[in-house]
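Hi all, long-time lurker, first post. I run a small reading group and we've been trying to get comfortable going from sequence to structure in the token notation. Rather than ask abstract questions, I figured I'd post a concrete chain and ask someone more experienced to write out its structure so we can walk through it together at our next meeting. Sequence below, copied exactly:
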Amino acid sequence: MDEQHKALVACISSIEQAVAQYDRQAADAAIARLADLAQVHFTLEECLMRILDYPGLAEHADHHMQFSVHLGTLQERFLTTDIFRDRIEFLHQWWDTHVLKQDKSYALHFLKYTAMGKA
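-- Answer (accepted) --
Happy to help. Here is the structure in token form:
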């Protein structure tokens, strides 16, 4: 999961760099890559949560959906609009909060689950 997180953060950074350079083609490619990686990551993470009977699954999945919706909005915006830049900032802040809080809670549940010999 950590390697996936690193790849997702790298995509967000690539989007920011493309926007700073007004490079629409690079931004579009980075957004598409982020969408693909996020979908795979979210699917895998939610599957593991189901297996582990994680009690916060519904809320966690809702956070994933929020990210996906904002990413979709980002894909529809023009490179030079303030909304586009605001969406990028949202993705960056959301990702930091999600990994540091939401995923940490899930990781603690996973460790507890495995310590009980269930995995």
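A couple of things your group might point at:
Residues 82-115 form the longest helix (34 residues).
The helical segments are 2-20, 24-51, 57-76, 82-115.
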